[in-house]
Amino acid sequence: MSRILIVEDERKIARYLALELEHEGYEVDSAGDGRTGLERALSWDPDLIILDLMLPELSGVEVCRRVRHESDVPIIMLTAKDDVSDKVMGLDMGADDYMTKPFAIEELLARIRAALRKPRAKAAAAAAEPESAALRAGDLVLDPERYTVTFAGEPVALTKKEFDLLHYLMERKGKAVTRDAILNDVWGYDYTGDTNVVDVYVRYLRHKLDDRFGIRTIQTIRSVGYVFSYE
Ligand code: CA
Fold first, then answer.
1. Ligand 1 centre from 34 Cα, in Å?
2. Who contacts 49 (Cβ-Cβ below 8 Å, separation ≥6)?
3. Fewer CB under 10 Å: which end of the chain, C or N?
């Protein structure tokens, strides 16, 4: 069931719209001012927004602009007056369609159906490229598929082992892991070298991440091991 958010301060219109839309089988929520509308648009994640232009608290154009920062949800603007500049501004801000009040409900319903049918760019992109397995901690992103690490978009060059160790620790973010566990899982059971190798590689990572970017990624837990604790 598609969810439609109505942002409209004229109660009679809002109630009428809500009844009609519910009758059509949509799940409906309403907001009576721009600020509440924006908040609901971002928290409820509707499939479509009907947005009046003249609103208290925050104008419809402003609501539209801010929603567009976060989402490509279809927006149909309602405007009481036949004001071309408002419409143009609304469309510039990313509204998909507009209707001038008073409108025929059948026409609005038809436009809602059309807007809901249109594939959404972001959703389509997400479907085409499933959310990658990238691990994130604040500005630090590790992509195990591409074998890349970036901090705030800046590439961080790591050796294979450094990468594996960081991957291992980031996967267990917030959980303490022992040196033995790291040694077994990252270096392998057949590793016969110095057990200090874990400490050495943690130092390498701290040098390449903490020292370079002024952050604290891997913390030492005395006589136990390490924890990746950067958020
Ligand atoms: Ca209004």
1. 10
2. 4, 5, 6, 7, 37, 41, 67, 73, 74, 75, 76
3. N
Report how far residue 68's alpha carbon sits from residue 90's, in angstroms, rounded to the nearest whole number: 11
Q: What CATH number belongs to 3-127?
A: 3.40.50.2300
The pLDDT of residue 189: 67
- How far apart are the CA of 3 and the centre of ligand 1, in A? 21
Distance 13 CA to ligand 1 centre (A): 9
Q: Mean pLDDT of residues grouped by 10 in the chain (231 residues)?
A: 95 95 96 96 94 92 90 89 67 80 90 86 55 84 91 92 95 93 85 82 96 95 92 87
Backbone angles phi, psi at 61, to 5 degrees: -60, -40
Task: Quote the pLDDT of residue 192.
Answer: 74
Q: What is the pTM of this model?
A: 0.54
Distance from residue 1's CA to the centre of ligand 1 (Å): 27
Judged by phi (left if over 0) then psi (alpha if -120 to 50, else beta), residue 228 lies in: beta
Domain boundaries, the chain: 3-127, 135-228
Q: Which whole-number Å values give the CA distances from 112 to 33, 40, 47, 173, in the listed order? A: 21, 19, 10, 44
Both tokens of 206, joined, read 């701290």
| Range 135-228: architecture per CATH | Orthogonal Bundle (1.10)
Query: What's the pLDDT at 22?
Result: 96
